[in-house]
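User: Predict the complex.
Assistant: Input components as received:
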Amino acid sequence: VAGAARPALLLFDIDGTLLIGAHAVHRDCVHAALREVHGLADPGAAPVVAAGRTDGEIARAIALQQGVSARRIDERAADVREFACREYARRCPGDLSAHVALGVPELLDGLAARDGVRLALLTGNFEPVARLKLERAGIGHFFEPRQGAFGSDHEDRTRLPAIARARAGDGGAPFPREHTIVIGDTPNDIACARADGVRVAAVATGPFTTEELAGADAVAVDAAELTAILEARLG
Ligand SMILES: [Mg+2]
């Protein structure tokens, strides 16, 4: 029986989910900001896991490892963010379309055509970096402006789903948890969804295997399988 379209808020991660291998220039810009703001000689030498973490969290981890005090990191966090975003605007390749994950344009086309389905971003990228990256990849238009949540909203990814639901809310009430789905490629994507009590679909197109992502409500090997999972969920 066909019913009315169920509303849904789909919150997409970028790196490892929508785009593959488009993070190198972005990482270099965060490093450039750490050199500029904190005077670090070689930020890239710090062994830091970046996948699934926010830009601010990554910058903090590197700075702490290289001897910057927590207080100074707090005081200069906005400067690091601003420098990294300016640098990314300068260095971002003109065409990132080759980095779009296989099947992602079809997935987004299909979802965008559904009544009541809203597509937004939930990423650790600073917002200006995220928006420019997707624009240059040719898929920025799928995601509503002034929606979603970004590394520039909070350093702690577990806070981001609630921020995205607040932005998508109606008349002061946040978008309901039961109709919100986080989509990402790392255990941190799963953890942030759990922290806010929303559903999560994982896709193993990033650095983690389906086994490592088994804590999600559903795990796909690629965008085609993710399409089937989301379509089944949306009815
Ligand atoms: Mg990711």
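The two ends are 10 Å apart (CA to CA).
Let me know if you want any component modeled separately.
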